[in-house]
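Protocol step 4 of 6: structure prediction from sequence.
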Amino acid sequence: MSIDQTLTSQERLAELDLDQLQQLVGLVEYDEAGDPFPVTCWDAVVWAVGNATQAAAFYQLAFGMELVAYSGPETGNRDHHSYVLRSGAVRFVLKGGVDPASPLLEHHRRHGDGIVDIALEVPDVDRCVRHARAQGARVLEEPHDVSDEHGTVRVAAIATYGETRHSLVDRSRYTGPYLPGYIARTSGAPKRERLFQALDHVVGNVELGRMDEWVAFYHRVMGFTNMAEFVGDDIATDYSALMSKVVASGNHRVKFPLNEPAVGKKRSQIDEYLEYYGGPGAQHLALATNDILRTVDALRGAGVEFLATPDSYYTDPALRARIGEVRVPIEQLQARGILVDRDEDGYLLQIFTTPIGDRPTVFFELIERHGSLGFGKGNFQALFEAIEREQAKRGNF
């Protein structure tokens, strides 16, 4: 199947043409027939949160997402509230326990607000599960159909690092708002111009010494390939360091950087995450935007906080020599704290929020790509130092 055929088969991507998607997330030519575990695209990022009702309002009012579906006591789901939000091709599902015995409440007690499921859309659930099982994956849900008046969705799930799972979803025979058991729902939140259009990548943090194990898992079980590797001085300051490798699906629509802590004089951001999250998990989501200045201004105006970048980053002659010409004056990037990096394919603009919850765990990255397929390697030093300043404020450094 060609990229064009793959994309046009996805109703929720209809608003984005191929050129936009290639620019946003770095698509490559891809032969699905030779892939033992073909992945079409992200399906949903499913969160366990302490208060789904308030979280849904936050993502609508601050992030400009649109409420599209709901499940809860009013629909016969006595266990939890679940709100489905969209922005372009990005789908968040926010779940909060209602029943005191809900497993979601126990998950939240252990981890705080966090991602429980990185769901992937696949063309053949059974084929993927057969391959995964043969390669030693733990199957959490066997392939099965769920149906309602809108059609049928075939789903399954496999385990990955920590308590994170990948649901595998084939919704090619379904026209409903999300899944059977959900109803279409909107809200009275004011409509805003879309701030981001796609999910670029999701970063996972794992324990010391286990990064290569999980990289091998994605190679063996899901047929992912290596995109990048960062070791030693690539991601280090005088005080802390980490190791990172990036794996991607065949079409590069799904990309997972995987981090582990490295030995340093003090605790790294990965050590802090593992302590406060209570184990491995998804650390941050990169949201692709085609206008990072407008997006940052809107988010900051809604109260979202970003990591601060010192002025010295922008006045360094080496930076200007390295990045060359970009679409906006460096002074506008400096005024907002946006980082810029260039590689052999082009350049990117990026910025990182502070943690979005009470625990210093999950946060967001905003990214605007102009040809670059990288992850901002030239910014790692500045980013690490900014994170360390925030850790010091919390007393966790």
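Step 5 (inspection) to follow. Residues 1-14 have pLDDT under 50 and may be disordered.
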